[in-house]
Structure formats: C-alpha cells, structure tokens
Specification:
With about 190 residues, this protein is of the alpha+beta class. It folds into two domains: about 45 residues, no CATH class; about 130 residues, Nucleoside Triphosphate Pyrophosphohydrolase (Alpha-Beta Complex). It is about 25% helix and about 45% strand. The protein is built from four helices and eleven strands. The strands form two sheets. Strands 4, 5, 6, 7, 8, 10 and 11 form a seven-stranded mixed β-sheet that branches. A four-stranded mixed β-sheet has the order 1-2-3-9, with no helix packed on it. A hairpin with a 2-residue loop joins strand 4 and strand 5. It is globular.
C-alpha cells in the first residue's frame, strides 16, 4: 500500500509527542492529537517490544503456566508468553526461549500461526503466535519475574472448559486458541 492510501484512512494527526515514562520493559508517551473533526486532544500510548505466545500441544494435552499477575492482584492461568525487551528479537527464537524459560520444554517444530495486536486501544505491542509440537523436557530457566510460576499440563478438553467457565480469562490465550482452531480447521 502506498503512503497516500495509508494517510487516507487516518482520522487523527499527531501534533506532538513526548515520553513521560520509561523503564526496561516499556515506554509511555503522551501525544497531542488533532482529530479529523477539528477537535484537539491527547492520547496516551504504552510502547513495548513485540512478544510471543506459545501453544505447547502434546497429543491431547496442552501446557499452561500459572503465575501471580500484579496488575490484577490474582494468580492467572494462561499460555506461556512474554518478551525479551529487545526491539529486534527473532520471533521464533523468542518463542523457543519463553517455552524453555517458563516450562523447560523444547519443541521439535514451531509453527507460526500469526501475529496479533495485544490491546491496541492504548498499547503498541504485537504478539507472535506459535504452535509448539514434538515436545521434550529440558531444564526450565525462569527469570526473576517468574519465580512463582507453576506449570500445568491439562487435556485440551479441560483447557477449553477452563476458558468457558472463567478460570482462564487472559485475552491473549483466548485469541491464540481461536487462531489455532482456525489454522487447524484448514489443515488437510
């Protein structure tokens, strides 16, 4: 698509941008904007480097992680996911690294299923979705934020029940599962 077509769909113009906060995981900026209706405003944006989410499936079982999520003050069940705070991380290397860090698993095959925006209403971060198969156990290598992580292997049926009854509420896990089901339905 050329630049003229890209600009044609925009209804907001950035007038100025300033970084208001930064740490090693994210950057927060506040942009002064002009809407196509002539109204000025501000937009807060969180910038994070791209991440990965992995569907580690072994036969009729899928691996999940459980950890305390500070922002919601609860323990949460989800697919393994994360990032390396590196702008140019190779998506498959990142997925393999997260799989090893969080679950101590190595995958013989990684299939890239797609890329999703996580929460583009305020967050600029993409997540690469990978199916991991041919799993073998290695040693896990959790980072400091994963000190309380618990690994779970459940049947696919139980996993789907957990999503339906609200035990799993992570939107990234739900979206990755939906993408996987679409991919799977198109396999010969």
């Amino acid at each position: 698509m050329n630049q003229a077509n890209d600009d044609a769909g925009r209804s907001i113009t950035t007038l100025s941008s300033r970084e208001v906060y930064r740490n090693r995981w994210m950057r927060v900026r506040e942009d002064e904007i002009l809407r196509s209706n002539g109204e000025k405003g501000i937009y807060g944006v969180v910038d994070k480097d791209d991440g990965a989410i992995i569907l580690p499936i072994d036969g009729d079982r899928i691996w999940l992680v459980e950890q305390f999520r500070y922002t919601i003050q609860e323990r949460a069940l989800e697919l393994p996911q994360g990032g390396w705070e590196m702008e140019d991380a190779d998506p498959e290397d990142l997925a393999r690294g997260e799989l090893k860090e969080e679950l101590g698993l190595h995958a013989a095959e990684m299939t890239h299923l797609g890329t999703l925006w996580i929460a583009y209403g305020f967050l600029r971060q993409k997540q690469n979705v990978f199916l991991a198969t041919g799993l073998t156990q290695t040693e896990s290598d959790p980072d400091a934020e994963e000190h309380d992580l618990v690994a779970h292997s459940v049947t696919v049926s139980e996993f789907e029940k957990m999503m339906l009854d609200g035990r799993i509420r992570d939107n990234c896990t739900l979206a990755a599962w939906g993408l996987y089901l679409l991919w799977k339905s198109r396999q010969g």
